[in-house]
Amino acid sequence: xxxxxxxxxxxxxxxxxxxxxxxxxxxxxVRGSRIVDVACIEPGPAFDARRALTPAxxxxxxxxxxxxxxxxxxxxxxxxxxxxxARAVTERALEVGFFERERRGGREYVRQTARYPGEWFxxxxxxxxxPDLGRPGELETQLRTDASLGLFDRVVLATTSHVTGxxxxxxxxxxxxxxxxxxxGERAVLREPTPLAPTEPGVELLDRAxxxxxxxxxxxxxKARARRRLAERAYGKGWRTYDMPACAEAEAAEMDGxxxxxxxxxxxxxxxxxxxxxxxxxxxxxxxxxxxxxDAERERRTPWRRAPEGRRRRQAGLEHFS
Length: 322
What we know:
Elements: H1 3-16, E1 21-27, E2 35-43, H2 47-53, H3 60-64, E3 73-74, H4 83-96, E4 99-104, E5 107-112, E6 121-129, H5 139-149, E7 154-159, H6 165-170, E8 176-181, E9 186-191, E10 202-209, E11 212-218, H7 220-237, E12 250-255, E13 258-264, E14 269-270, H8 273-276, H9 294-301, H10 309-316
Parallel strand pairs: 6-7, 7-8
Antiparallel strand pairs: 1-2, 2-6, 3-5, 4-5, 8-9, 10-11, 12-13, 13-14
C-alpha cells in the first residue's frame, strides 16, 4: 500500500478510539528538520481552556511574546525580532483570536484575549509509518533520533510487513511496533513502546554522512517549546489536510467511521490528489471535487471545536477596529 493511503487509514483508525487530537506531517525536531508522520496529543488538565480560545494554531512567537492578558502593550515592544516579523505574528494572532487590539493616540496596542493555558496537552505519541519494511529509507535514522531526543512520550512504528528479527535489530528497543492491516482495520501490538523522557535533555541528530554524524544536546526548555509548537500545530491542522480530486472518478470513502477520505473508483484505492490526480492520469475525467466539510467531520469525531463560544464573543467585540 502507498504510504499516503496507509497514513490516512491509520489516522482514521487511531482517531476512532482516541479522545485527543490526531495530526499528521508535523515538525518534530528542536533544531533539526525531523517530520513525524502522525502525532497523537492527549488532553491535559487545561484542555477546555485551550479549546475555548481558537480552533487555529496559535503562533509560537505570540505565546512567548510580552503580550499578556492584562494591560495592553504597544505591539512593537512585545517581541524580540524584526518589526516585519513582529507585525506578521501580531496580525496572525489577531486573526485567530488570540490577541485583541485597541488604539491610543494613533498607536496600536494588543493584549491576549485570555491567558494561554500551558497545560492544555498531556502525553504525546509519535507514530512513524512504514508499510513496507523492505523499503526502509531513512527509517532507522528517524527512529534513533526520536529515541535519543525524547521529544515524544512514546514512539511507535506502524507497518503492514511481517517483522523479522533482522528488522528488530535495526529498530531501537524503546520504539513500539504495530502491525496494522488497513483493509480490515485490525491492529496488532507486537511490542509496547518504552516511555521516553521529554522533560529531560536529549540528543538530536542533525546530519549524517559517511564517517560523520552531527548531533547536539537539546535542553529540557528547548524540548518543552518544541512540544508545545508541535501540539499547537496538531490542534490547528489535524490530519485532514488533503484535497479531494477534481474528477468524476473521485468519491468520498469511509473507514473506521471517518468519512470523506479521497478515493478513486478508476484506481480502486485512496489517492493523493496533489501528486496522483490531474490530466496526466489516464483515468482523469474533469469534474467538481466531491464536497466534503473536513471541519465538520473533525468536530464530529474529536474534542476539537471550530467555533468555540469564547471566540465568537471576542470576535464580535473587535468589529469596530476593522
